[in-house]
């Protein structure tokens, strides 16, 4: 099987709402690349909703969709984080976190009601979100002599590579993004130029 190098995520943050018997479920979706980003998002939402009863979430990461985290934040086990995650799974989304903020309305919803509410709130926010397909890319820095500029730029242009950063002097440096599928063939071309190639990170 060929390496799958595309994935579905959301373009930008989105919001949705679901109500059931007085309880309000405010859903927030964010595109993320690392688990660390959640540490910045959560405190902001808690500051915005200090009187909410629960802040439950599901996070899914990785091109192979293998990393996930769920949190029921005091709701009965399996009634909040898991239905949020299952909705992300059914939509085949990754590099995303959905946080559902609940304001209790005074009527207990029971386990089936909670599962439905957290699932429905997630569906509502995903209806508002713009879903996009992205390619999995590796980021490399190429260091080369100024005299090789034309040869390096020719490869970048021919292969439609994205330049992230560049610095030109006697010694030049360009940071480029290469789709994973094509990494080996492009690195082979660049290495023929006597350039120094350094892997930075994956996206």
In words, what does this structure look like?
The longest helix has 19 residues, at 110-128. The two termini are 22 Å apart. Strands 2-3-6-4-5 form a 5-stranded antiparallel beta sheet, sandwiched between helices. The chain has a 4-stranded antiparallel beta sheet with strand order 9-10-8-11, covered by helices on one side. Strands 1-7 form a two-stranded antiparallel sheet. It contains 5 helices and 11 strands; from the N terminus they run βββαββαβαββαββαβ. Helix content is 30%, strand content 38%. The model has no long low-confidence stretch (mean pLDDT 94). Helix 2 (81-90) crosses helix 3 (110-128). The protein is α+β, with helices and mostly antiparallel strands and 203 residues long. The protein has helices at residues 36-48, 81-90, 110-128, 149-158, 183-191, and strands at residues 6-10, 14-20, 23-31, 54-61, 67-71, 96-103, 131-135, 137-145, 162-167, 171-179, 196-202.
């Amino acid at each position: 099987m060929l390496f799958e190098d595309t994935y579905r995520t959301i373009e930008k943050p989105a919001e949705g709402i679901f109500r059931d018997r007085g309880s309000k479920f405010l859903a927030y979706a964010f595109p993320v690349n690392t688990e660390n980003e959640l540490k910045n998002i959560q405190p902001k939402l808690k500051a915005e909703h200090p009187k909410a009863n629960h802040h439950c979430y599901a996070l899914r990461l990785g091109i192979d969709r293998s990393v996930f985290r769920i949190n029921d934040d005091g709701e009965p086990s399996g009634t909040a984080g898991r239905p949020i995650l299952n909705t992300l799974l059914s939509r085949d989304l990754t590099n995303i976190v959905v946080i559902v903020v609940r304001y209790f309305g005074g009527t207990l919803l029971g386990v089936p009601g909670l599962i439905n509410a957290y699932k429905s709130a997630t569906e509502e926010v995903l209806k508002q979100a713009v879903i996009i397909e992205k390619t999995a890319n590796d980021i490399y820095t190429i260091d080369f002599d100024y005299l090789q500029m034309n040869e390096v730029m020719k490869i970048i242009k021919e292969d439609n590579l994205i330049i992230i950063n560049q610095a030109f002097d006697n010694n030049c440096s360009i940071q480029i993004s290469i789709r994973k599928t094509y990494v080996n063939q492009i690195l082979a071309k660049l290495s023929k130029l006597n350039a120094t190639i350094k892997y930075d990170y994956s996206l």
